[in-house]
User: What shape does this take?
Amino acid sequence: MHRRVVITGLGVVAPGGIGAKAFWELLTSGRTATRTISFFDPSPFRSQVAAECDFDPAAHGLTPAQTIRMDRAAQFAVVAAAEAVSDAGLELAELDPYRVGTVVGSAVGATMSLEREYVIASEHGRRWLVDNARTSPHLYDYYVPGSFAAEVAWSIGAEGPAAVVSTGCTSGLDAVAYAAELIREGSADVVVGGASDAPISPITVACFDAIKATTPRNDDPAHASRPFDNSRNGFVLGEGSAMFVLEDLERARRRGAPVYAEIVGFASRCNAFHMTGLRPDGREMAEAIRNALDTARMDPTAIGYVNAHGSGTKQNDRHETAAVKLALREHAYATPMSSIKSMVGHSLGAIGAIEVAACALAITNGVVPPTANLHEPDPECDLDYVPLEARDRRLDAVLSVGSGFGGFQSAMLLARPEGDAR
Amino acid sequence: MSERGGQKADAPVVTGLGVVAATGLDAETYWKATLDGRSGIGRIARFDPAQYPSRLAGEIRDFDPAAHLPDRLLAQTDHVTRFSLTAAAQALADAAVDPAALGDYDMGVVTASSAGGFEFGQKELEKLWSKGGDHVSAYQSFAWFYAVNTGQISIRHGMRGPSGVLVTDQAGGLDAIGQARRHLRAGTALAITGGVDGSLCPWGWIGQLATGRISESDDPARAYLPFDRDANGFVPGEGGAILVVEQREAALRRAAPRVYGEISGYAATFDPAPDRDRPPGLRRAIELALADAGCPAAEIDVVFADAAGVPELDLAEARALTGVFGAGRVPVTAPKTMTGRLAAGAGGLDVATALLSLRDQVIPPTVNVGPLADGCGELDLVRDAARPAPLRRALVLARGIGGFNAAVVVTAP
Assistant: This one.
């Protein structure tokens, strides 16, 4: 069984505003949501900026019991899933629970809750033999982020295949691909899938400080995320979630559901090079892009927009530029390619799904989101990165790419639905 | 549809096994201990467990990481990654795979993880909170996260094909095998899969204690008693297995030295939310895996049970098995009573154990279990001693905390 898979609903929790509408307004305005970290005192750290969500769980329907039980990233996922289900017009009570799957990507799981609990159990790091009497009864759910999929599945009543996909910073793309495959192979008819991460905690900031991966541009937090700009010097940590309703195209047609986009191609590769380093030639990412094109039976010239990984490290920006040129050849120069991380930061495993949401909305609205803060491109990055301002453009197919620690390189192709877009 | 007497042309074959567990640091040592019924469960030695309510584990001892890995890798890895790299190297050697002879995009890695490199993470949290952020290791950004084992195996062996990481608690090992099978069907020739897991450090231990499912017995022979009327929780362990799986044609083409068996069927389901009055999903996972394998229930010769060791979960599993197979119609075993429950390491190790059972036509025992609990009495649980039997197909089950269910059917070559 090889069915076609479409996105019929989406939900977003992102810095700069909760919900898909606020997210899209931010992206098309070119405003940024990066700021000085407010969750804890960042002054001891090298990088003190982040893209934080102003998120009130109660305002989004979570009960006090849910809020206490769930890590912040699980809360994001449940809220984004509810928005996606509502957006898709799905009547949960009419679904066969056995035919509904749940997939959540996350790079670092319940980091915030784990660190909070560790500090309690260890008396601020003073005890190696941590105290089990003072920690949350939900500690295991933080320890194993399979709990994120469980929470989403419970919230929608799903009893089909459920999983958390955790491939570092490609988790979001890989989770959406996993969800699509469950439908394609016939294991589910509907999958609520996407990704979530909420990593803005001292241990995350410290571990990226240690390898100088995040930016030290602390004096100008609103302009700190500068992918492809010559002055960029690291990424800005973010948080958030995007979740989708994916379903079999025929099923969506039968129920008359508007379609954002069809997922037409996907491939992932590993660089087998270094846990955090990238080979400058970009050949594994290029291979992923070429293979995604093969699976979609698509010519590179069909691609109207590339949603870049665009993290804003020198290494990434050059690697990715090389990869896109290798895969798309001359067409790379004619294709707008932007990084929304310039506006919403890099939410690790979540961002791949958030970027799929941006691609779906770009197709639907015929608008390419810009790369904010791009004033003077790195001379080695010579593609059209859509600086500063969104651009109107009819999009028939878009490519989203991701690159992650562990060497993961993923590429997904989304296409405008046949007939009228949503 | 069945072909060639039950073998499926597109079913991947397992050509190599690597095992690291409390009862053996390679597959054959582990298998001999398992058939002999020797348990690896004992009081935790890695840290002093005296202050905790549970003190037993299936801890790996006598493992010298420097004998297996270069210094460069030792500096940047947690125990669990060292075990994973060792098991992966064993599996590739067992399968006589020369990674250089295969195209580098023809090999991928899909592993399961539950908690990543947890002791590494505890040490870095301790440094951060007691000494400050400047003391945090440059390796922390990747040494603890869930993708670490896949990434390190990929790098060490030059595997650049489609790869992945699944986190579904104890169901993860089987879900990883299911995902590797998808990659092979889509064209990748070979995948490293399974999982090795474990977080025997104080910070990992209190996470496990929070489940309320860990036995508080201090007697290694009375602590982990699945299906027993004295079931009182389980004993966690560390370790697991890494498998080399290949497209059948690819294995034939390179003249792989042996085929342990094929992965004939796989399925995953999720339990209903706790407040819903609906049946648990394990039975459906079994039925879907059998259907996927094109295998009637009567063709299953042995079941490797999830064996939670928690009375209500044991009862649910017994009911699922009796419902599918009939009372006492299929032998059931839980050799994990000797290693402890291995979280994401369990599925791979049970599949490896099932394949060795098919090879040697013998069912390994469940140890220490005495009179069965009410409702579990209809199980034909293989207890005390290994049982020779004609075996062609085995069913392997796993359940992860939260509600994950997975089932795999393996068939002898």
Observations:
- Chain A has 13 helices and 16 strands.
- The two ends of chain A are 27 Å apart (CA to CA).
